Amino acid sequence: MCGIFGYAGRDNAAERIINGLKRLEYRGYDSWGVAIADLDSEQINLVKHTGKIGEVSSEKLFDTTSTIGIGHTRWATHGGVTDTNAHPHYSTDKSFVLAQNGIVENYQELKSELISKGYEFISQTDTEVIVRLVEEELKTAQDLHEAVRQAFLKLTGRNTIIVLEKKNSHIIAVRNGSPLVIGIGNEEIIIASDTLSFADRTNKVILVENYQMVEYKNGETKLFDVKENAELKTEIIELDQADTKVEKEGFDHFMIKEIVEQRYTINEAVQYTLDELNPLLGRIKEKSSKGGQGKVYTVGAGTAGFAAMQIAFFLRKHANVNATELKAYEMESYKNLFTPEDTLIAVSQSGETADTIEAIEFAKEKGTKIASIVNMLGSTITRISDYKYFSRSGAEICVASTKAFTAQTAWGLLLALSLIGKYEEAKKVVKDLSQNLESFFEGNDFSNIKNLAKKLKDQEHFFVLGKGQNFVASLEGALKIKEITYKHFEGFAAGELKHGVIALIDQGTPVFGIISNDENKADMLSALAEVKARGGFTIGVAKENNELFDFFIETIEGHEADSIANIIPFQLISYFMALQLGNSPDKPRNLAKSVTVK
Ligand code: G6P
After folding, report:
1. Strands (E), 336-406
2. Which CB contacts under 8 angstroms, 24+ apart, belong to 552-556?
3. Ligand 1 in contact with 301 (CB < 6 A)?
4. Structure pTM?
5. Residue 442 pLDDT > 70
6. Residue 304 Cα, ligand 1 centroid: separation in angstroms?
């Protein structure tokens, strides 16, 4: 989703900003812009385009060099994907430019007021409203700092803005909701949406909280509380650099690299000592195990929402904990149910998903304690959690999430089994799975899965059935494929088949069944038999072949972690089918990696 990258230092700012925007590309965007302040001529040079940044070079964009500027990647919300709607936006007198990450929820009323005062609008964006509002505030404010502050306080919604002034070597950024971090490099400062965007320059960061303003002016960086207008102390923290590589490392796409990396990332996610797990284990045992009234909720969105479901399943199934999965964007009916006895486990790769943050805020208001399993260091969800855990998968760049899901669920299995004293067993299960994955990927040319992808690529409707431990895998497996093949894939509980889904089965309709050697095997086979009897094309994702399968995909042995192992064939099918269809696996249409707006 939208990304912000501001730079001030010694280097060519345009070059640094383009590099930074490329490192933000993974978040998903449809247009971009770079603005450079030429301090000698006191002018801001602005370039904005739809599409990808590609191999653009700074010299081609700007004929001057400057060491200060801002850039933005836009994921359209208000107004179509056009050069004009791309950010940053000039003020009328071109004395400053502004870019936003978020949504101004009251933009319509602000816009009508500004129009009645004579302001003209060039774009269809909500962001231009902020620009005009700052201009209006400048009429009475003593300086740009005060005008931006006053304007910001009039906005509703989650929005983070960055402003570049044409003189004074001056950048202002204010955060509310959408993420903002400051990178402190060697005689340079970067103000950006995430730490990954400047991980090649520095690991020293200042985390900016909501309603805080960063001001860089003439070489000095200050932090302010926007509401109080008071200067704040800054704290520089050092992040673990090893987590921030963003190279394809010889793979054709980030997606396949990240799928293959699961052979060790799954195991990384469970590298917690009992001492580190104990605070959360103790809380759940005390409040939610036998006798306790507290509930455990798990919450997330998209793939992380499915990981949350799987974690709740593990907690119920293995640890008899009364755990309920919630969708971050469907919380309304739960708002009044949270109590201080409850624990909410938030699951997120980015740690910045607006829906998930809002869900946490609801729960926090009621005194519920928050635990989280997040992949991005320094992210918002981590900061607002009482019990913080990292999935330690390294940067996940491909929009479709793979290694984050398996890491989050592996951590969930560790949590569930540790609650019943099976910490060592949990670690062994995950380690064994990791080793099985190592052998699975070793020298594998994926010919079976490639054949299936080729065979099915022209079909439009697909179904995936799962039951018990494999129910979530059916949902996440289907999501993965629809995200990058743009085909209609639906995951269902096998039990749903007879209650409606079977009406959709026609001659040749592909239906996947995910089958473990567990108590649900017989039901799963019956479901596939019913599909086959109606002419459907059955694909068994299982340990061994069966006469009921028209196509067989052998799965990786996972034991208690079977549901985690079983997602991997679907990741591979989606990747190879996307390639067959000519789609970009890393950057699927319309999707954003980090969904920082509602
Ligand atoms: C978007 C992404 C998904 C991701 C979801 C939640 O929809 O496209 O891949 O699962 O956001 O993101 P999070 O960062 O909270 O895991």
Report:
1. 343-348, 369-374, 387-390
2. 553/448, 553/449, 553/452, 554/448, 555/514, 556/433, 556/436, 556/437, 556/440
3. yes
4. 0.83
5. yes
6. 6
Q: Could you tell me the two tokens for 360?
A: 């946490």
For the CA atoms of 160, 164, 169, 175, what is the dihedral angle to 10 degrees? -10
Model confidence at 385: pLDDT above 60? yes
Work out the mean pLDDT of the chain and round it to a whole number: 93
Residue with tokens 């774009």: 123
Element (H, E) at 533: helix 521-533
Digit-coded pLDDT (tens) for 456-497: 999 999 999 999 999 999 999 999 999 999 999 999 999 998
Residue 124 alpha carbon to ligand 1 centre in Å: 27
**Structure tokens that stand for 525 in this block:** 């086979």
Look up 2 and say whether it is catalytic: yes
315 with 415: CB under 8 angstroms? Answer: yes
Is the pLDDT score of 103 beyond 80? Answer: yes
Which pLDDT band, with edges at 50, 70 and 90, does 537 fall under? very high
Specify the amino acid at residue 509.
T
Domains in the chain: ranges and CATH:
3-238 (3.60.20.10), 255-443 (3.40.50.10490), 445-584 (3.40.50.10490)
Q: Which of 344, 290, 338 is nearest to 312 (CA)?
A: 344
Q: Is 379 in the pocket of ligand 1 (CB under 6 A)?
A: no
Q: How confident is the model at residue 402 (pLDDT cuts 50, 70, 90)?
A: very high
Going from the C-alpha of 297 to that of each of 291, 301, 346, 375, 563, the distances in angstroms are 17, 14, 8, 19, 20
The Cα–Cα gap between 346 and 357 comes to 9
188 touches 201 (CB < 8 A): yes
369, 467, 587, 593: which one is catalytic? Answer: 593
For the chain, the maximum distance between any two Cα atoms, rounded to a whole number of angstroms, is 80
Query: Is the pLDDT confidence value at 111 over 90?
Result: yes
